[in-house]
C-alpha cells in the first residue's frame, strides 16, 4: 500500500511545485507567528491558488481562537485543520464550527503519551503523532526532533493516523517500517534552514517514501 506524504510549513510557490511533483497528497500551511514557517492570510490565499485540486490543503494551528480559524479557512480554502496543544473538547468545537476535517496532534516522548490519542475519538478525524518538544520551547513541532517509533508498533490507534517528527529522506523508510505508518509528515527534514524549503530535499524525501 502506498504511503501518503504531507509536506508541511510550505511558504513559497517553488516548494508547492516540488511537493506536487513529488506526489505529496497534502500540503501544510502554518498559521503561528512564532514559527519561521508562518504565513499570513494574503500569502496563504496566493499559495492555495497554486495547489491543484487533488492535493489537500492543511492549516496548522496552535490552540487557535475562532477568529483566526475562520479567517484562515476562508483565505487558504483549507481542507483540514491540524491542531497542536488543543484539548479534544476544543478540537471538537472547531471541527463542528468549520466543517473541516480535524487532525489532533499528540506529542510523544514515552509510551504513556500515546494514551492521549484515545481522547480524540469523536473529536477528530485523524491523529498526528509528533515528537514532544522540550518544556518552554516556543514551537510545538518543526524542530527536527523524533521519538522512538517502536512505541507505535502494536498500539491500538483510535483513528487513522500519520507520523511526524524528525523525518528526512535518510530515515523515513526505517520510520515507516518500524511504526507501520501509512502517512508521513515532514517539515524541517526538507529544509536548508529553518523555514526555508529545499526543492531537492523535497524531491529526495518523496522518492524515498515512494520506495517504502
TrEMBL record:
This is N-(5'-phosphoribosyl)anthranilate isomerase. GO terms for molecular function: phosphoribosylanthranilate isomerase activity. Keywords: Amino-acid biosynthesis, Aromatic amino acid biosynthesis, Isomerase, Tryptophan biosynthesis. One of its GO terms (biological process) is L-tryptophan biosynthetic process. Belongs to the TrpF family. Residues 5-207 form the N-(5'phosphoribosyl) anthranilate isomerase (PRAI) domain. Pathway: Amino-acid biosynthesis; L-tryptophan biosynthesis; L-tryptophan from chorismate: step 3/5. InterPro entries: Aldolase_TIM, PRAI_dom, RibuloseP-bd_barrel, TrpF_fam. It catalyses: N-(5-phospho-beta-D-ribosyl)anthranilate = 1-(2-carboxyphenylamino)-1-deoxy-D-ribulose 5-phosphate. Its EC number is 5.3.1.24. The gene is trpF. It is an enzyme of class 5 (isomerase). The keyword Amino-acid biosynthesis applies.
Amino acid at each position: 500500500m502506498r504511503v501518503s506524504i504531507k509536506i508541511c510549513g510550505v511558504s513559497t510557490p517553488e516548494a508547492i511545485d516540488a511537493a506536487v511533483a513529488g506526489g505529496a497528497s497534502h500540503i501544510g500551511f502554518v498559521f503561528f507567528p512564532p514559527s519561521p514557517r508562518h504565513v499570513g492570510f494574503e500569502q496563504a490565499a496566493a499559495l492555495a491558488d497554486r495547489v491543484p485540486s487533488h492535493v489537500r490543503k492543511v492549516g496548522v494551528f496552535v490552540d487557535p481562537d475562532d477568529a483566526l480559524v475562520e479567517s484562515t479557512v476562508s483565505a487558504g480554502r483549507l481542507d483540514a485543520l491540524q491542531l497542536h496543544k488543543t484539548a479534544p473538547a476544543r478540537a471538537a468545537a472547531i471541527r463542528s464550527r468549520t466543517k473541516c476535517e480535524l487532525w489532533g496532534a499528540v506529542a510523544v516522548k514515552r509510551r504513556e503519551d500515546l494514551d492521549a490519542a484515545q481522547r480524540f475519538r469523536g473529536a477528530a478525524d485523524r491523529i498526528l503523532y509528533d515528537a514532544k518538544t522540550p518544556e518552554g520551547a516556543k514551537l510545538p513541532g518543526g524542530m527536527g526532533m523524533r521519538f522512538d517509533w517502536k512505541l507505535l508498533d502494536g498500539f491500538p490507534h483510535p483513528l487513522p493516523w500519520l507520523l511526524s517528527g524528525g523525518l528526512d529522506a535518510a530515515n523515513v523508510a526505517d520510520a515507516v517500517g518500524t511504526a507501520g505508518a501509512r502517512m508521513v509528515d515532514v517539515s524541517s527534514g526538507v529544509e536548508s534552514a529553518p523555514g526555508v524549503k529545499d526543492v531537492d530535499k523535497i524531491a529526495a524525501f518523496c522518492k524515498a517514501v515512494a520506495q517504502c
